[in-house]
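## retry 2 of 3
previous attempt timed out at serialization; input unchanged, resubmitting
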Amino acid sequence: MFEVGVFDSFEAAHRLEGDFGPATRQHGHTYRVEVVLSGTSLRADGALYDIGRLRASLRAEMETLHFRDLNEMPAFAGRNSTAEEVASYLLDRLRQPLVDSQIETIAVRVWESPDVFAAREEHIE
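## retry succeeded, writing output
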């Protein structure tokens, strides 16, 4: 299996609803996002996927979140703005251009701190 990946970060505020202790109060994170693509075969040029294209796609999607209150965004209406939901939001937007490629799996990890992350992984069909 081959893998390529990129990292980037954005700043955002949010508050969680439910039994999340102090996280139910408004607070912010410097989110670090990791996107990893994997597949068993390379393109004719010897690459799994164009890393520059992946980086540009990730940055474009993260720009929609940068310096925002996630709880005020329509994308999170009716959803708790957990790291899992942020990972899901980004994966849903990044997966579409991959459908007709040799990419088999996409994984998005969202780090709220150096020690804590949540992720979503999906097979591309």
